Amino acid sequence: MRSSRLRGSFWLSFTAKALRRKGIVSRMFTGIIEDLGVVRALRPEPDGASLTVAAEKIAGDLRQGNSVAVNGVCLTVTELGAETFSCDLSAETLRRSTLGRTRAGMPVNLERPLAVGDRLDGHFVLGHVDGTGRLVSKVPAGGGCTMSFEFPRELERYLVYKGSIAVDGISLTVASLEADTFTVAIIPHTLQVTNLKDLNPGNDVNLETDILGKYVERFFQAGMTRENSPKLTFEYLKERGF
């Protein structure tokens, strides 16, 4: 029991400290979708593209320079219109996400960053997409559904049974995990207020794995390359405030 409490305390402390050190708390998301927007236009630009989205619920509260997650991708508001906003998409964003394949009329999930003092109802989502997955099956279940997605092999080490993953910006729990697919259970509410209701097998989605796993991996990679690597134990970390 004591060992379990120590491990839990370490993970929570490590996450909080890592987020503060990287300065990302001010632009963190939770994966709880606020608005279902509609793409108005995707215009090619010399170094990327410009995306315009209609957002009836949140557009009035946005300002130029604000961050907003669009299908799980953290973007910066560059222009505002009547219930619309526009963002620039870099070449990297177009390469790594599905936003370059959006078309006018497509629904997109929208979320503004977590404000200081807000409840964390989902999980830590940064809006930094790791790659794209593909819906392979969608089975109705009690008003909701179960959905299975293929994922890139390089993300396998970050996926955990009963762990968190963001799919098009939605915080979901991995219900089952296979070598190259994972399954999530979608409740009726989530199905109705997100773009999941419009997805069909063969459609691609943005995936972001849990940031905790990435920080832990990097921490131990760096630690194991140093002369003091044998000291990298729970006791060693606890003594140094983790």
Summarize model confidence as the mean pLDDT: 85
CA distance, first residue to last residue: 19 Å
Major beta-sheet overview: 6 strands, antiparallel, barrel
CATH classification, class level of the domain at 27-111? Mainly Beta
Query: If you compute it from the alpha carbons, what radius of gyration comes out, rounded to the nearest whole angstrom?
Result: 19 Å
What is the spatial order of strands in the main beta sheet? Answer: 1-2-5-4-3-6
Number of extended strands? 12
Specify the overall morphology. Answer: globular
> The CATH topology of the domain at 27-111 is what?
Elongation Factor Tu (Ef-tu), domain 3
At CATH's second level, what is the architecture of the domain at 27-111?
Beta Barrel
Strand content: 35-45%
Structure annotation, total helices: 5
Structural class estimated from helices and strands? alpha+beta
- Could you name the ranges where pLDDT drops below 50 across 5 or more consecutive residues? 1-14
Q: Name the helix and strand elements from N-terminus to C-terminus, one letter apiece.
A: HEEEEEHEEEEEEHEHH
* Helical percentage: 10-25%
Summarize the structure.
The chain has 242 residues and is of the alpha+beta class. The chain is built from five helices and twelve strands.
Write the layout of secondary structure elements.
Blueprint: H1 2-22, E1 35-45, E2 48-54, E3 67-70, E4 73-81, E5 84-90, H2 91-96, E6 107-111, E7 131-141, E8 144-150, E9 164-167, E10 170-177, E11 181-186, H3 188-193, E12 204-209, H4 211-223, H5 234-239
Antiparallel strand pairs: 1-2, 1-6, 2-5, 3-4, 3-6, 4-5, 7-8, 7-12, 8-11, 9-10, 9-12, 10-11
